[in-house]
Amino acid sequence: MNYPLLNVFLTMMWVFLWVLWFVLLFRVISDLFRDDSLSGWAKAAWTVFVIVLPFLGVFTYLIVRGRGMGKREIGHMREREARYREAVARSSPPTGGSAEELARLAELKAHGDLTSDEFERAKTKVLTG
């Protein structure tokens, strides 16, 4: 096998640049379809431009619409976080405070489900927060 070390580095560089190009291309296309301010025809035109003339299309998109890409990404992330927090709030049981928790522990101890040591540890945990 006769493949000099410099050729290995050059091949690695070209592969890295190729992967970087595809990441940039997918980033542009995902930003394009995430943007609600564009009409369907504008999205179709940008998509055709990016696919038919990829280098020119991507660089033109970055020049014309690149400034808003970060703002749209931040808005998308805030929306996802709000939906996540809403889902967590819906799925978590309502907390009634430490008084209800202590009453529940006392009931478990009265039924014999908890030993005195377990009750004291749980009570300390509830009271300390």
TrEMBL record:
Keyword Membrane annotated: yes
Transmembrane parts of this sequence: 5-24, 44-64
Domain of life (superkingdom): Bacteria
Cross-referenced InterPro entries: CLS_N, SHOCT
Cardiolipin synthase N-terminal domain: residues covered: 19-65
Compartment(s) of residence: Cell membrane
Keyword entries, A-Z: Cell membrane, Membrane, Transmembrane, Transmembrane helix
SHOCT domain boundaries: 100-127
Secretion signal, residue range per the UniProt entry: none
Membrane topology summary: Multi-pass membrane protein
Protein name: SHOCT domain-containing protein
Taxonomic source organism: Actinomadura nitritigenes
Organism lineage string: Bacteria, Bacillati, Actinomycetota, Actinomycetes, Streptosporangiales
